[in-house]
Design brief:
289 residues; mainly alpha
């Protein structure tokens, strides 16, 4: 049976989401053994080296960019730093499924921000889907409820930072290699987290923690490479909805690895967020036709 580009793209997207979620699970596994900044710094060293080698092998290690692109790269890097700290802080203290579920509102948030700041056309149906999607997030977060965690606000803050990052990425010139931008970002996060470790007490790194950090570095690079490959095969409107497979991975890993069983409202809110996201993708496909 012949595999179509759309099918290949769907598998690549699911593989990318699996890799990113396995990275999250690996980094969460060291939460009890070391401080957040120590974990980010050690992972950052490995990640920066791996991205640098990959960029060098592909001939994408270039830093000759226009002033405009450097300003955008700086904004993007600062947003990535904010997203990393906010997301991992939430991940260290919340079930992985809850944090991942909140992040599934990203496509809707980016659609809304694109309409608000970039003048992209969004109809009333997609605005309605965006509103329902954020309502689904409120069901997951439940502000003021017994299950409310203040760290959920950090997950929402991470969403905001990622929106800024992605909007900045859209404005980069086409000739700027993605891998060089990724290397600059990884290096900046490593330097900043390394500086922050001077303010904390370092913990001894056990063989198990080292293994998790190495795994996290490999998974995050794998997720990044697969996400690049996704953009080169198949129709984006067909492939994009498969990003929600991250939630399935997060629920499975949360139950199997961490023993976290999501409650009814988390599941229901996740269904609302995913459903509205799928509807938004469907409307984009209809309008494209």
């Amino acid at each position: 049976m012949k595999i179509t580009d759309n099918t290949r793209g769907a598998f690549l997207m699911m593989g990318s989401m699996a890799a990113f979620t396995l990275n999250d699970a690996s980094i969460k596994s060291v939460a009890g053994d070391m401080h957040l900044f120590q974990a980010v710094f050690l992972r950052g060293i490995l990640t920066t080296i791996l991205i640098g080698l990959l960029a060098g092998l592909r001939g994408h290690m270039t830093f000759v960019h226009s002033r405009r692109d450097w300003r955008i790269i700086t904004m993007r890097t600062l947003a990535e730093i904010g997203a990393t700290v906010a997301f991992l802080s939430a991940l260290f203290h919340m079930p992985i499924a809850d944090v991942t579920a909140i992040l599934q509102v990203l496509p809707l948030a980016i659609t809304f921000a694109g309409a608000l700041f970039l003048g992209e056309k969004v109809g009333w149906r997609r605005y309605g889907a965006i509103a329902l999607g954020f309502a689904g997030v409120l069901l997951i977060v439940r502000p003021g409820g017994d299950g409310f965690s203040s760290y959920a606000l950090l997950a929402l803050l991470a969403v905001g930072f990622v929106v800024v990052r992605d909007l900045a990425t859209r404005r980069l010139s086409p000739q700027v290699p993605s891998l060089s931008v990724a290397f600059i970002t990884a290096l900046a996060i490593t330097i900043l987290s390394g500086s922050a470790t001077m303010l904390i007490d370092w913990q001894a790194v056990t063989a198990q923690s080292a293994g998790f950090l190495v795994a996290a570095s490999v998974f995050i690079i794998g997720g990044y490479v697969l996400s690049i490959m996704v953009m080169r095969v198949g129709e984006i409107a067909f492939v994009a909805p498969f990003r929600y497979s991250a939630l399935v991975w997060a629920i499975v890993l949360g139950v199997v690895v961490f023993g976290d069983i999501p409650d009814f409202w988390t599941v229901f809110g996740s269904v609302v967020v995913v459903g509205t996201g799928l509807f938004s993708f469907y409307r984009e496909r209809v309008l494209a036709k």
